[in-house]
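Slack export, channel: ligand-projects

TW: morning all. Re-posting the request from yesterday since it got buried. We need the structure predicted with the small molecule present, not the apo form. The ligand is 2-acetamido-2-deoxy-beta-D-glucopyranose; the SMILES is in the block with the sequence. No rush, but it would help planning for next week.
GE: picking it up
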Amino acid sequence: MHAHQLQIFIFITSVFLILAHPSSCSMESFIYIGCTPLKFNPGTLYESNVNSILTSLVNSAPSTHFNNFKISLPGSTQADVIYGLFQCRGDLTNSDCSHCIRDAVTRLGATCPSSLGGALQLEGCFVKYDNVSFLGIEDKTVVMQKCGEIGQSNEYGGTEMVTRRDAVLGFLSSQMEYFRVGGSGKVQGVAQCMQDLSSGECQDCLSEAIGRLKDACGTSPWGDMFLAKCYVRYSEHGFSSKSGKGDDEVERTLAITIGIISGVAVLIVFLSILSKLCERKGKRLALSSISRIPSMNEELHMNKITLHSIIFSILQMVNDMNHMTNKKSE
Ligand SMILES: *[C@@H]1O[C@H](CO)[C@@H](O)[C@H](O)[C@H]1NC(C)=O
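GE: finished. pasting the full token output, ligand included:
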């Protein structure tokens, strides 16, 4: 039964490829969004400027991790001028950065329709536009802060957690780059400044963020401190799939997938036993009453087609489920 083994192999490989998808997509996990309460009128020059700046951000992202723009199409008044920037996390590839920005801009447009300004932070990237200039200006306003709950699944107890966390944050503040990573045992930290800051401003912003993060999160197993122009985060679980209840989502997806794999394996075994039985008997009992008995080749061919379409619909299902769990984790 070489054909069947091949099919099982292809199926399982596909499942893992699909499973691998969410983790490469976790850069698009949602962190925060803000829209200005003021709206612009549709059909105005302001709207054209917004569309133009969002397009510029998307077009620029494949080749750089940071860029900023000032857009005023001909005829714009001072109040119509729009400023915008994007910043990808420093460890993203150009292609991941580009995907992240594309996704961020789409979501920003959908969530803040007709807003004068808006900002969106995803796991891997940030976009913002406004008619008030914020480019090159340090801003240490707290935009989003979050601390993990202290629970049984924590790797380290209170004192060790704090010691390791403070060591990681201390290391981060001793670095010079816009993007910084560090770790102690399982505790990892990550920091990112917007690249429109000078390196001194970046340092100042991160110091503020680190101080606030320590104060806010105490012995929590993870914490996030997002200021307007920089952020610091630490976690016992790294930064690939974590966003609050991310771990549960991953486990659930895994459980569902394992269930499906075993279900399909049983189905495939069942089908192959069935077709073997049919082959052995030579003629099918059920079909013998039908006047035209299909040839053996045709039967096998039909079997394969059914199997393919079953596998295809299951793959489709797994894919849909992944989309659902991804959406839920936002
Ligand atoms: C931004 O747009 C609003 C609404 O048109 C306007 O009142 C405000 O003055 C603008 N801000 C700047 C800095 O131009």
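GE: first-pass observations. The pocket of 2-acetamido-2-deoxy-beta-D-glucopyranose is lined by residues 38, 78-79, 116, 131-132 (CB under 6 Å). The chain has three domains: 2-10+246-328, 30-130, 142-235.
TW: perfect, thank you
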